[in-house]
Specification:
Blueprint (H helix, E strand, L loop, with lengths): L8 H14 L14 H5 L13 E3 L1 H11 L1 H21 L5 E11 L35 E15 L3 H67 L5 H36 L6 E3 L12 H11 L1 H22 L4 E13 L19 E11 L5 H68 L5 H35 L6
Parallel strand pairs: 1-4
Antiparallel strand pairs: 2-3, 3-5, 5-6
Helix pairs in contact: 1-5, 1-6, 1-10, 3-5, 4-5, 5-6, 5-8, 5-10, 7-9, 8-9, 9-10
Length: 489
């Protein structure tokens, strides 16, 4: 599959960053004399970033807006309209061609009494070719010639040449339409991933805030114990270190939420800098069986249909090239007025105005049959097009393999993410129970700050892992829906 235009790599990095900072193991603080200038800068007062409030949207609203406003989708639709406009070009060959010309020629007239240039829009038959001089009497004296003419031509019968060109142009429209469908599905996948990533970022923030609040309670409890002489001062310093660490984690988690909201706004194509995801549980349908999913993808996947359309378009291009050697029958008509200033060789009078005024009228109608019996360049282009057909067939096989592989991979990822989620939830329950025991031991004076910090880190890590597990399930199902070219939600 081609790479998607908008990705959540930065978002996932931010989520991992939040997870590591919020649930890391016990930190070791360097002596004050060994701390770097960057560490000293941490003591400076922090300035909060002023971010605008994010507008809340549902998943259905986000998808609908992206379909109508996402620049990548609009660009793909514009390419379809461009191909539709190009498809009208060969059809225009059936319409009449009209043109006018006006000419003034000054030059020698040893072979004719009038001179004029050919015109691509007016078919001018040769008239008045009476010689004015023989070879020995030729002269360099110039004479005036004038011409004013209007004419037109009409296609009568092209023996299928224009129809072949039109069919090839229509096939290019079909290719662009399938490419636009693929682009739309990719954008919808980006929106779904970004939407559920906002939920994951919020869950991580909630876990980080909970860890910070519990660490704050423990710090106050340790402080009271030290003041009463019931605990050693190291208990307070350790509690202070844990509080600072969890405070850093929640700050980064807030940043992760802002990043996720910014990614969602970009995926949707919204004018706002950020968008917030509404709190809604996704309504998922049951996954089809793997053979049925592969069959659905083979029938509906836009990239595969695009590859098939490209082969059909190339075959029609080959046929259109072969049609260039067919006969062509056209009707042409012209009305003109012309005059030449050279004296006729038969001794007749020159036209009034001595060639400066087109005073001699003429008209004609002609039926023209042309037939290019053999054109080597056309034959070479046709051979090259047939070679391109083989490339298109190979691309179909490659695309079909990629489609099947994508469906199988997404199917397995959904199963793995779904089976891992209950284990993550049991891990969270065990971590919370472990934390409750450690908290009770600490309050009773039986446990230490190190034991409590380890339990808190284990609980925060489990809460974040559950949030990421839910995100993995949602992302895997969205990718499976994209693989079979049908929404799962």
């Amino acid at each position: 599959m081609p790479p998607r235009s908008v990705r959540v790599t930065a978002l996932l990095s931010a989520l991992t960053w939040c997870r590591l900072s919020a649930a890391a193991g016990p930190a070791t603080r360097a002596p004050a004399a060994e701390q770097s200038p960057a560490a000293n800068e941490a003591s400076l007062p922090a300035r909060a970033l002023a971010l605008p409030a994010a507008r809340t949207v549902t998943l259905a609203e986000a998808l609908a807006y992206a379909r109508d406003h996402q620049p990548a989708v609009l660009a793909a639709l514009a390419r379809v309209r461009s191909e539709q406009a190009n498809a009208a070009v060969p059809r225009a060959q059936y319409l009449p061609v009209l043109g006018v010309t006006g000419q003034f020629v000054e030059g020698t007239a040893n072979n004719t009494t009038a001179s004029y240039l050919s015109d691509s829009y007016v078919d001018l038959p040769r008239i008045g070719g009476t010689p004015t001089r023989n070879g020995s009497g030729a002269t360099w004296r110039p004479y005036a010639s004038t011409l004013a003419a209007a004419g037109g031509s009409q296609e009568i019968f092209d023996f299928g040449r224009i129809a072949a060109q039109t069919a090839a142009a229509d096939a290019r429209v079909t290719v662009a339409a399938h490419a636009a469908d693929a682009q739309r599905l990719d954008i919808e996948l980006n929106v779904e991933e970004a939407f559920f990533a906002v939920h994951a970022a919020k869950a991580i923030l909630q876990a980080s805030e909970g860890a910070y609040q519990r660490a704050l309670v423990h710090r106050d409890f340790a402080s009271a114990g030290v003041k009463s002489g019931l605990r050693s001062p190291i208990e307070l310093t350790r509690a202070e270190a844990d509080l600072t660490r969890f405070d850093t984690g929640r700050i980064k988690a807030r940043g992760g939420v802002s990043i996720a909201q910014a990614v969602l706004a970009t995926a949707v194509g919204a004018p706002e800098l950020t968008l917030d995801a509404a709190d809604e549980a996704p309504a998922w349908s049951d996954l089809p069986a793997l053979p049925s999913a592969i069959q659905l993808a083979s029938e509906r996947e836009p990239h595969l249909r695009e590859a098939l359309s490209r082969l059909r378009q190339q075959e029609l291009e080959t046929r259109a090239l072969g049609a260039l050697t067919r006969p062509d029958l056209q009707l042409s008509a012209t009305i003109s007025a012309r005059a030449g200033g050279a004296p006729p060789s038969n001794g007749g009078e020159r036209p009034a105005g001595d060639g400066f005024v087109p005073s001699v009228p003429n008209w004609d109608g002609v039926l023209v049959l042309s037939w290019p019996l053999y054109d080597p360049s056309v034959a070479a282009r046709q051979r090259a097009s047939r070679t391109a057909e083989e490339i298109r067939r190979s691309e179909i096989d490659l695309t079909r393999q990629q489609v099947v592989a994508a469906v199988e991979q997404a199917y397995v990822e959904v199963g793995v993410a779904r089976e891992a989620l209950p284990a993550l939830q049991r891990e969270l329950e065990a971590a919370r129970a472990n934390y409750a025991q450690a908290d009770a031991r600490f309050r009773a004076g039986l446990g230490t700050s190190v034991e409590l910090a380890d339990a808190e880190a284990l609980r925060a890590d489990a809460e974040i892992r559950v949030a990421l597990g839910i995100f993995d399930v949602a992302k895997a199902r969205a990718m499976f829906g994209r693989a079979i070219a049908a929404g799962i939600h």
